[in-house]
Structure formats: structure tokens, C-alpha cells
Amino acid sequence: MKNNKWLEDMKLAHPLVIAGPCSAETEEQVLEIAHELKNTDATIFRAGVWKPRTRPGNFEGVGALALPWLQRVKKETGLLIAVEVANREHVKLALKHDVDILWIGARTTVNPFAVQEIADALENTEKIVLVKNPINPDLELWLGAIERLQKVNIQNIGAIHRGFSSYQKTKYRNNPNWQIAIDFKNRMPEIPLINDPSHICGERTRIFDVSQTALDLKFDGLMIETHCNPNKAWSDAKQQITPTVLKELTEKLKVRKSSFEKTSSITKLETLRDEIDFIDAKLLRTLAKRMEVSEQIGKEKKKQNVAILQQNRWNDIIEKSIKNGENLDLSNKFINNIYREIHQESIKHQEKIIKK
Ligand code: PEP
Ligand code: MN
């Protein structure tokens, strides 16, 4: 499957930069942004025309009225144009207006019926279709949506990582959960992966850092919401940046090489990697040894008919480890996570003994 061919064939700058407003608001607004974007690295112009809003009553997009504005953008600036589609009707209208790239939004990817409807409406198309991750952290659902497109012979597919909702408020609007993006790349290495730092951050100050992390993880591009007057935007005002700021931002970003060059640093690197391998092997032996001791404790618990979970003991261990970790420059969160896993594994080993 050659789903990444479109990225090579189009000969667009790599990493790809997609920019434009959250929403198309007026013809003037759209054209003003597009003309300013001509001076940046952006090669694809995005604009939401139908806006999926979490709650009713907010601006829901101007609808198909904006599609001829985007056609003007393409004609006047040479930028390719991209819109979000959420149903068959949107697809029909986007195709009728020569939209180059259609993307499926996070609230649509969660719904296999909607994705199937879009896939069927696009069967055999040569258009580029980008699939945002679903709002919930479910890799299978994201992959499933892409498989639905592949099954109807859509060749030019990409994915957009825009982060995941969480009930707890964090510093992000949508938690990046980078591991899911890394797992995505392992499961579908042929699909170009684009990062959307705007919807991850929810506000503009962290967009650079998130973009740099994405490039360090070898993402193929960025989709960044851009507006000439961000604070006055009709949707997502806090997270949009001006084309000028976008230009500065992409100039500052460092694109790193995929692998090390053959220089003397390679031997240094090999030595350090050998050392890591040695430490990892030792770490595993130590963990295995810890489980053996834990099983012996399990035998004692069985003999004396004592419950596996000893809450006080567990609290002592975690407290002590966090304190020791601090002295070793290991974060509380890391110690907490790692000990929770060790404890779970230990319980499993003891259960095996007790059930024997
Ligand atoms: C958008 O790109 O403007 C949008 C609605 O994004 P998401 O689907 O990621 O929420
Ligand atoms: Mn938006």
C-alpha cells in the first residue's frame, strides 16, 4: 500500500505546513489570511466551513457559502485548499467546489457510521483525505476509520494527531498523549502523520514547543490555525496565531535528521547504547528477582490465610520509593507509575501462588 505517495508526489515542503483559520468567516477574512500565508512555509490552506461545536448556540460555520471563497484562494494564491467534512452532503459539496484535501474531524472519527458514509461518498477518489484522531484516546478507533477509507480504495490518506479530551483540566486543551501517536506510526508506518498543535494547546503560547516535539518524533507535518486578527476570530480565538508569527515559528523549528551520520560520534553512540543494553538486562533480572521474593511472600500469605493486598505496606513502599527517587533525580510521577506497574505484577505473581 502506497498511502504516503501523495506526500512525495506533491513535492510540497517537508515537513508539510497546513495553515488557515479555524473557521471561514467572511470572504475578505479568508482572502486576507491566504495572501499573507503566501509569505510563509504553508502550502495548504485550511478553513472550517461546517463547524462541529460541542454545545449548540456557538458559531457553527457559514456553510457551503464559503466554498467559492476557498476556490478564489486557490486561484489567487496557488495554495491547495482543505475543509472538514462530516457527512455525505459535505463531501458532495466539497468535491463540487474542487476542494483538494478533505479532513475528518475528531468528533466524526469516533462514529463508524459517519466515517463509513464519508468513505462511501469518496469511493475511488484521488483526493487527499486526512483523518484526525478521535476525541477519546482509542487507537483502534483511529485505525478503524483509516481502514474504512482504504477499503473503498482511497489511496491518498494521512492522519492528524490533535490530542485527546480528558475530564480533568490539564495545561492542554487536548492531552497530546504522545505514546498513542508513536503507536500509530508503528501500526501504520505508511500513513503520513501530521500534528495539530493548535487543538492540543488551546492557547497560542505553547504551540512552538508542541510543534518541536512533533518534529522530534518525526511527524510529517503541522496543521496550525492562523488568523490575521486572532483575538477577533469567531471560533478558537485563543489558539490562533497570525501568519507573521507562523513564519517566525516555522523558521525557529529544528528539523532533525532521522539517524546519525557516520562520523566518530557513531562509536561513542554505540558504546553508550551497549551500556544502556547492559543496564536494561540488569534491570530485568532485578525485577524478576523481586517477583521471586514476592512469590515467597505469597506462599507465607497462603499458609496464614492472609489477603494479598496489604494497603499499609504498599503505602510505605510507595512513600519510601518516592523519597529515594527524589534523591536520584527521578520524578514523583515516574516513580508512582513504575511502582504501580510493579505492584500489579507482584499481585499477579502472588495470585498464581495462592490459587495453586
Ligand atoms: C478544527 O480543525 O477546527 C476542528 C474542529 O478540530 P478537531 O476536529 O480536532 O476538534
Ligand atoms: Mn479550531
Describe the structure.
By secondary structure, the chain is α/β, with parallel strands linked by helices. It has two domains: 6-252, Aldolase class I (TIM Barrel), CATH 3.20.20; 263-355, Chorismate mutase (Chorismate Mutase Domain, subunit A), CATH 1.20.59. It contains 14 helices and eight strands. The chain has helices spanning 5-9, 27-37, 67-77, 88-96, 106-109, 112-122, 139-151, 178-187, 197-201, 207-216, 243-252, 265-303, 311-327, 332-355, and strands spanning 16-20, 44-46, 80-84, 101-104, 128-132, 157-161, 193-195, 221-225. The protein has an eight-stranded parallel barrel, surrounded by five helices. Strand 6 (157-161), helix 8 and strand 7 form a beta-alpha-beta unit. Helix 2 (27-37) runs parallel beside helix 3, helix 12 (265-303) packs across helix 14 and helix 13 packs antiparallel against helix 14. It is elongated and about 80 Å long. The mean pLDDT is 94. The structure holds phosphoenolpyruvate (PEP) and manganese (II) ion. Phosphoenolpyruvate binds at residues 22, 48, 52, 105-107, 132, 162, 199. The site of manganese (II) ion has 4 residues, from loops.
